[in-house]
Amino acid sequence: MKLQNNKGQFKLTLPKDIVKSKKWKQGTELLITMNEKGEIVIKEMKR
Q1: What pTM was estimated for this model as a whole?
Q2: How far, in Å, CA of 33 to CA of 42, rounded?
Q3: 12, 1 contact by CB (below 8 A)
Q4: Which of 11, 19, 35, 45 has the most C-beta neighbours closer than 10 Å?
Q5: Which region, left, alpha or beta, applies to residue 33 given φ > 0 means left and ψ of -120 to 50 means alpha?
Q6: Rounded CA gap, 5 and 31, in Å?
Q7: How far, CA to CA in Å, does 32 sit from each of 10, 25, 27, 37?
Q8: Residue 22 pLDDT
Q9: Rounded Cα gap, residues 20 and 17, in angstroms
Q10: Alpha-carbon 38 to chain mean position
Q11: Of 22, 12, 17, which is closest to residue 43 (Cα–Cα)?
Q12: What is the per-residue DSSP string for 1-47?
């Protein structure tokens, strides 16, 4: 994975195998947080 800067907005492309295993699709809303260990956590936002 590579972090990309686009006019001050940073983008991260997720690997296809992870997206498919989570059954996420384009438009799926994700919540990105950091846990107490400083690790990044990505979760699907439930509606």
Answers
A1: 0.71
A2: 7
A3: yes
A4: 19
A5: beta
A6: 20
A7: 13, 16, 15, 14
A8: 96
A9: 5
A10: 16
A11: 22
A12: --EEEETTEEEEPPPHHHHHHHT--TT--EEEEE-TTS-EEEEEPP-
Q: How many residues does the chain have?
A: 47
Domains in the chain: boundaries:
13-44
HSE-CB for 30 with a 13 A CA cutoff: 16
33 vs 43: CA distance, rounded Å: 8
CA torsion, ordered 13, 14, 17, 19, to nearest 10 deg: -120
